[in-house]
Specification:
Chain lengths: 115, 111
């Protein structure tokens, strides 16, 4: 158990809908990262927050957005869902924004199925 | 083209074999290298973490980085059926930055 929690575990929804995925980082971790894992693309970085501020953006669609709250939990919002958004969504957390021992620990993921 | 390339396998070996998993990367700025293990329907768990070139050993696992050839390797000695999983290599220029993952190699260790 990494100490990172994600809810829900599974989500089934229809095209055009909007969903929110939630992540609680490990105790003491200030950075939160969101990744998408699909069969064809593998694990791809979406976005990073550090202590409430957006720090880096990856291949995140405009239909997707995220935020990190004062208690450091984070939410990933996915809207106007398409079939191709079906994937595993992982949250990871780390203590700092950088440094030689700043490893990322992953949560169990949320499996999103868009029908 | 992905910055980290990894043969997806699957790789099947008998119990007790030495396993060699490999990745290549293209970004010369990468200096942090990790191996994650992912069991089916679980999140990736950190296995090995290496900074810059060289070897690092942890029990049955050895990670090797050759920055001159941009090659990353993971060796597993005395492989066990419980090692059956997908192994993901990852690299980044700064440990606070996003990780660039290979697509993962599926390993099956048969009793």
């Amino acid at each position: 158990d990494s100490g990172v929690t994600q809810t829900p575990k599974h989500l089934i929804t229809a095209t055009g809908q909007r969903v929110t995925l939630r992540c609680s980082p490990r105790s003491g971790d200030l950075s939160v990262y969101w990744y998408q894992q699909s069969l064809d693309q593998g694990l791809q970085f979406l976005i990073q927050y550090y202590n409430g501020e957006e720090r880096a953006k990856g291949n995140i669609l405009e239909r997707f957005s995220a935020q990190q709250f004062p208690d450091l939990h984070s939410e990933l919002n996915l809207s106007s869902l398409e079939l191709g958004d079906s994937a595993l969504y992982f949250c990871a957390s780390s203590v700092l924004a950088g440094g030689p021992r700043n490893t990322q620990y992953f949560g169990p993921g949320t499996r999103l199925t868009v029908l | 083209q992905k910055e980290v390339e990894q043969d997806p396998g699957p790789l099947s070996v008998p119990e007790g074999a030495i396993v060699s998993l490999n990745c290549t990367y293209s970004n010369s700025a990468f200096q942090y290298f990790m191996w994650y293990r992912q069991y089916s329907r679980k999140g990736p768990e950190l296995l090995m973490y290496t900074y810059s070139s060289g070897n690092k050993e942890d029990g049955r696992f050895t990670a090797q980085v050759d920055k001159s050839s941009k090659y990353i390797s993971l060796f597993i000695r005395d492989s066990q059926p419980s090692d059956s999983a997908t192994y993901l290599c990852a690299s980044t220029a700064n440990s606070g930055y996003a990780l660039n993952f290979g697509k993962g190699t599926s390993l099956l260790v048969t009793p």
